[in-house]
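Hello Y.,

Per our agreement to keep a running log of every chain we model this quarter, I'm adding this entry. I've kept the format consistent with earlier entries: sequence first, then predicted structure.
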Amino acid sequence: MENTPPRQMPVFEGTDKYYLDPELRAIVNIALAMEKPLLLTGEAGTGKTQLALETARALNMPTEILRCKSTIKGEEACYTQDTVLRLNDARFGPGDSGRHVDNFFDYIIWGPIGRAFRADEKVVLLLDEIDKTESDVQDNLLDILEECQFTIREVNQTIRARVRPAIFITSNAKRELSDPFLRRCYCHHIAFPDQEAMRRIVDLHYPNTDPRLLEAAIAIFYDLRSRGFEKPPATSELLNWIGALERLGEMPDPAKPPLTGILLKRAGDILRHRGGGAPRRRF
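Predicted structure for the entry above:
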């Protein structure tokens, strides 16, 4: 597969729901053209996951998502065997299911990587929050993605990708990624947008909202972000808040903005904003 020349990919220009600055546009499209994994870093809520989903939507490609967690193993991202069902069929028979207990593949459950490799068309494969996994799992996953193949150990059969997927990987930097992992990816850090960029983002989602409401909401949002909260509000919270304000039909007051529970999520942050002390103990 390594001798196959890269396919000519269509260009991703952003969508009606995703603002794409020039630098991000360049790295996304070169990663697609060169068929390299694109590692996206940045604080939560900056649109890393949404970028992969919007790329798939814009280019009319199916999506497979691996939601990473600390307990995941590379193998289960590719496939697992339903041993309980196989044992049940061996004891009681498969009935009219069409399964045969001697056919291993009748009991395979394909994971996101397995489904992406077996697809007959190009798929966007998203490894979401890769930093939650152990470093050996990260390297194992990237080996599989780089070679575009994995082996089913139980039957010693290699599954090779029919079409190399477009690979997006996100990280919130909760854990350092290994140097070998980083070397094999194209990387881009999505910085938190300044107010001008945020206006463009918001305008994509709320083109018909009162401009005065939007300006007031953005000003309050950035003021809250500057106060050093444990979890400062992110872009996704701002968009949700503006939607709620629009439904409420109320101009937000900077001295006492409404519905701040949409922006601030940690109890300590909410109490700090209210000017209260520690939460009361319940007996």
